[in-house]
Amino acid sequence: MNSCTSERRIRMKNKNRVLIIGAGASGLFAAITAAGYGAEVTVLEKEKNAGRKLLRTGNGRCNLTNVGDPSFAYHGTDRTFAEKILHAFSPTDAIASFTKMGIYTTNRDGWIYPHSDTAESVLTVLLWRAKELHVKIKYCEQVRRIEKNEDCFKVFTDTWHYETDKIILACGTAASLTEKQLPANGYDLAVQMGHSVIRPLPALVPLKVKDASRFKWAGVRVAAGVSLYADDLFIGTSHGQVQLTDSGISGIPVFALSGQALRLLEGRLNVHAVLDFFPEMSEEAFAGFLKKRKNDHPDRKISDLLVGILPERLLHAVSMELQGSTDPEMLSHVVKNFNVRITGSQGFPCAQCTSGGVSTAEVSADTCESLVMKGFYLTGEVLDIDGECGGWNLQFAWSTGYLAGKHAAEVL
């Protein structure tokens, strides 16, 4: 008789042991949920403290969730997986849960924040609730491998091994971390359990542009539209404040398209972005506006027609693309269709999340349990789902954490 079997026979029949790998957003929420449903919960965290990445979300303000339409908020091989997950545990459910734990929320155009405007408040109440439910959190425990025996799992760290009935893999990814800060490699652990992994790439990340430094636009912020193309095929568009840098483009509309852009580059496609620096007018209407300006001020240079419309540091880049033309129609075309070639990104340390990950075809959208290894659950960013800015990634963490915690606690 193996040790797992003998120990199980002397344990209470109505309580599961649940071990969670990672004390981030989804891991802590899973721990609280599982303990609330009666499980005996242990969390293993590689670092000295919990919630390291949670403290950085929303620039430290913690954009908890979003009450807008989630239909186009997620990307992945099967983004309907995220829709099903949020249907089971919605943003409204998340707000209610945090309110019950002590977080008073505020709604800013659908983006939900703690009223304190600090991620530290959110982490504090999560840890308080975990303590109230007798969740054990063990720090400085790097998981190296997992073994499945007949009746239980064995989880091996650098210093110990743990036996458990259920495992929840919630260790996150490399997004926003330096090499020294990398989490436990959840992908390797998932592969040990029989899963396949879609190559992880940075998402919600600044993009690099070919020869960006020649534009001399670093530091410019401008309201613009960003449209993404691959081999001249239109992929998508987004609008908002764009930040122009020495190496390329950044800002929320760029982030929204970055994961798709890098996935297309991975496929060796020619990827480019078209920037609309004056989305308030159509190209034709803007050309007419510029013609009138030129008639009113015939002695001014062509680029001077944009003074008061665009930041002056952007005029150099526009003038370069004009190539000596003095035609207002050409000027309108350049401003409305500023074409840049995408060559890459600033990488995982500058990314807010990851695209790719464990295939959702191998995970139940009803329970977050593995379809290839019974008793093994996966949550949050380790899955092949990435959300846009606005609290969608944290909502996915809360939703998957809730489902995994609830169902891992069930005693069959």
Topology:
Blueprint: H1 3-10, E1 17-21, H2 25-36, E2 40-44, E3 65-66, E4 74-75, H3 80-88, H4 91-101, E5 105-108, E6 111-114, H5 119-132, E7 136-138, E8 143-148, E9 153-157, E10 161-164, E11 166-169, H6 186-192, E12 197-203, E13 207-209, E14 221-230, E15 233-244, E16 248-250, H7 252-266, E17 271-276, H8 283-296, H9 312-322, H10 328-336, E18 338-345, E19 353-358, E20 376-378, E21 386-387, H11 392-408
Parallel strand pairs: 1-2, 1-11, 2-7, 11-20
Antiparallel strand pairs: 3-6, 4-21, 5-6, 8-9, 9-10, 12-19, 13-16, 13-18, 14-15, 14-17, 15-16, 17-18
Helix pairs in contact: 2-5, 2-11, 3-11, 8-10
Task: Provide key terms for this protein.
FAD/NAD(P)-binding domain, 31% helix, alpha+beta, single chain, 6-stranded antiparallel barrel, 5-stranded parallel β-sheet, 412 residues
Overall shape: elongated
Helix content: 25-40%
Q: State the strand order across the main sheet.
A: 13-16-15-14-17-18
The first-level CATH class name of the largest domain: Alpha Beta
CATH superfamily of the largest domain: FAD/NAD(P)-binding domain
Task: Walk me through what this model shows.
This protein is of the alpha+beta class. It has 11 helices and 21 strands. It has 2 domains: 254 residues, FAD/NAD(P)-binding domain; 139 residues, no CATH class. It is 31% helix and 25% strand. Strands 13-16-15-14-17-18 form a 6-stranded antiparallel beta barrel. Strands 7-2-1-11-20 form a 5-stranded parallel β-sheet, sandwiched between helices. A 3-stranded antiparallel β-sheet has the order 3-6-5. Strand 5 and strand 6 form a beta hairpin. The two termini are 22 Å apart. The model has no long low-confidence stretch (mean pLDDT 93).
